[in-house]
Structures are given as structure tokens and as C-alpha cells.
Amino acid sequence: MAPSKSHFVAFLLIVSLIVNAQSIRITDDSSDCTFKGPCHRRKDCYKRCGVKPPSHAALCVPYGDQGLVCCCL
């Protein structure tokens, strides 16, 4: 017996809810990041985060609809 269209729609709905929950968890304010303002590249964040290049403690990450921001770990 082949799955019906309603099973397929239910499956897509469940998958979209899981993906949405994961994306909210990733950009949650309780993360390890301290956000320090806008950036275009990672090297824009070294001075804002107070680290010397090359460092993995400064990242330029997407943050909601604010665009790219510096994430200091």
C-alpha cells in the first residue's frame, strides 16, 4: 500500500517543525556568543573581540534579520 498524500504532507510538516526548532536553538540568545556588532568578514571581528588573528574565538555569523554580526566566544 502506497502512502497517501496526507501522510506525505504530515511528514513534511513534522520535518519543517524540527528544522525550525533547530534554527531557533542555534540563534538563541543563551548561546556562548557575545555579539559585538556588524561585520562583513571574520577578520572584522578580531579587534571587536579583543583577539589576535588567526583566532577561532572571533566569528562573523548570521544573526536573524540583523545580517552578519561578530560572535566572540
Characteristic key phrases:
3 strands, 37% helix, antimicrobial, DEFL, alpha+beta, 73 residues
Q: Helical stretch count?
A: 2
Report the structural category. Answer: alpha+beta
Strand arrangement in the largest pleated sheet:
1-3-2
Task: Kindly estimate the percentage of residues that lie in beta strands according to DSSP.
Answer: 15-25%
Q: Ends: how far apart?
A: 52 Å
What characteristic shape results from the CA principal axes?
rod-shaped
Task: Report the mean per-residue pLDDT as an integer.
Answer: 79
Low-confidence stretches: none
Sketch the topology as an H/E string, one letter per element: HEHEE
User: In angstroms, what is the radius of gyration?
Assistant: 18 Å
Number of strands: 3
How many strands, what sense, and barrel or not for the largest sheet?
A: 3 strands, antiparallel
Q: What share of the residues lie within helices?
A: 25-40%
